């Protein structure tokens, strides 16, 4: 993914935000613009992983391919289906809330920071659920361990405490505190997506 490709993909978000603001309202435009920052972070993480794979400094895809068994047992397959189904159901509810916030905004002009805050939290959880599945079942913990993912969740929950100090300074600082965490998770998600894409490219040659 070249620099020009990243630029054009990111520009789609700005176009959608402008369109949403004109067709639905300013709050919808703000919501789409904020979601576009998550999209841009995913592209950044993806591009970073591609660069590191190209330079040979990222070998997680090769390790994941080596750890991938030829086939899964029936129990492993059922566990995978169950996890994907539960994550899909959870994601559906969270995504429905995101769509509702975009098309049916109900926060007033004085509380737009709550819109940014809620979107940030929703997107973080959606990406976290799928990052767990990709990292564990597809990459076989080649990028990070399951223990790291647990610590990441603990860190996110614990980060609610220092965010209060941001809220004492300004409500927008409070909202974008979680916005930055959303972008960090989005970049991480894009990174593991690129590693998994590379793993899929390697697998046919290894089999």
UniProtKB/TrEMBL annotation:
Record's keyword annotation contains Transmembrane helix: yes
Keyword Membrane found: yes
Annotated TM spans: 27-49, 80-107, 113-133, 153-174, 180-197
Lineage top rank: taxon: Eukaryota
Keyword annotations from UniProtKB, A to Z: Membrane, Transmembrane, Transmembrane helix
Name by which UniProt lists this protein: Uncharacterized protein
Species of provenance: Urochloa decumbens
